[in-house]
Amino acid sequence: MTDILASWPRPRLLHLNFSAGPVGDSVSRELTTLFAGTWRGLHGGAGYRYRDLAAEPVPLVGPAYVALGTRMERRGVVPPAEVTTLTENTAEEREWALTLPLISELRAADTVLIGVPMYNFTVPASMKAWIDRVSFPGAYLDPDTGESLLRDTRVVVVTARGGCYDPGAPREGLDFQIPYLRAYFGNLGVSEVDFVRADLTRAADIPALAGLQDLAARSLAAARKEVTTLATRDQAA
Ligand SMILES: Cc1cc2nc3c(=O)[nH]c(=O)nc-3n(C[C@H](O)[C@H](O)[C@H](O)COP(=O)(O)O)c2cc1C
Question: Is the C-beta atom of 28 inside 6 A of ligand 1?
Answer without folding.
Answer: yes
